[in-house]
Each structure stands twice: as C-alpha cells, then as structure tokens.
Amino acid sequence: MPARSNSPNHFLAFLPPGDFALIEPHLRPIELPQGLVLYVAHDTVERVYFPHDGVISLVVGLADGRFVEAGMFGRNGVVGGGAALDGRTAINQAVAQVAGSGSTIETGLLSRFVRESDTLRMALMGHEQIIYAHTQQIAACNATHHVDERLCRWLMQTRDLLVSDTLPLTQEFLSQMLGVQRSSVTIVARKLQESGLIDYRRGRIHILDVESLRDSCCECYQAINDHFERLVGWRPNVNNHP
Question: Domain count of the chain?
C-alpha cells in the first residue's frame, strides 16, 4: 500500500487522509538530541512522539542504577502513543539513544482525536501492539541468546532505523543497552572486526558486511521484523546498502 502523506514517520505516512488532516495542524517539529529523556517510568506522558530519524529506546531501570533496553523505535513507530489510548502514566523510560528529529503532539489532543475516529484509534492500537510484541521478543532474546547474536541483532536494527552503515555507538553504551559487562562487548566487537563484518573506532561502528552480520543475528531479528510487517506494515529494505 502506498504512503498517503510524505511524512518520514511510518505511522503518519500511512494514516487515512481524514485522520492525518485531524492531527496534522497540531503536530510540532522537535529535535531529539542524544540523551534526551522523553519521559520516565511513572511520569505523566504529556506528549506523543513520531520520530523521523534517530533511535528512541524504551529502557527499564534497575535498583542498582543500571538500565536495560526493552525496545527500540524510530521512523517505524510511535513513542508514548499508549497514553492517548488508556491513560497517561508511563511504564518505562524513553530516551533518545541516537540523535534525530520528529513530530510531536499533545497527548490530550491526540486522545480527543482518537475518541472521534475509529480508524485513528485502530492505527494507534496497532502500534501499541508492536511495542508489546517487540518488548516480549527482546525479553526472550536477553534470556536465551548469546551476547554475540544479540549484538548483531542490535546493530542490524539500528542500521535499519538510521538507513546508514555508520552507527554512532560506543561499547559502553552497547553494554548498558544489552545488560552485559563492557568487557563482553569488547570481545564480541573485536571478533566481528577481525571477521571483517564491522570496523570500530572512535565511538563509531561502520558495518562492512551487511549480509554476514544479518546471518550472525539470532532469530529475534527476523521475528521482530515479522511482527512489524504483520501488525503495522513496516519492514526495512533488506537490499538497502547506504
């Protein structure tokens, strides 16, 4: 199905024209610098975000101060949309892990429009379903798969969202998101570099062999993409070589 608007965000691009006309006058552009916290757990979610690029991570905080990523979204999703459906209280923290930009709308306004339009409500519910499916897949992935498979999956997901083979990621950041020791990430990154899959230097990872990196992912990379395609009609261009 062709996009209905020229928005870089998948949700906005594929809204029925009537629904887009409802919310478009109330959308505001926003910059999402790295490290920006959109909301934290138990916060009242005041705004809903539609990223155009960059990466927004949903993270879960632990008692010792660590955070572990439960899901990652960008141009393929909506962040905070559930607050417009069933209440405004956040259950996790949303933070910009890779800088980008997007559009945003007040939660109260979007909630009003959702009550007025069944198709808008269904579209938003589809994107909430993908959040549930995605976070459940990541939970299973973190519990059962090896660090090297998980790192490859994470790198491929980030590449898909940024549409770039150059990723601004440090090993310290990756260890936090994957919930492992930095030394474990160092070992895996070195192995991937020695195998010619990536080049890592100065806080940037450059993917050299996309097909081999994809083949090195755990099954969750494919499963997550299948969830996105089934629930919201989004799938990365696997043949894309920036």
Answer: 2
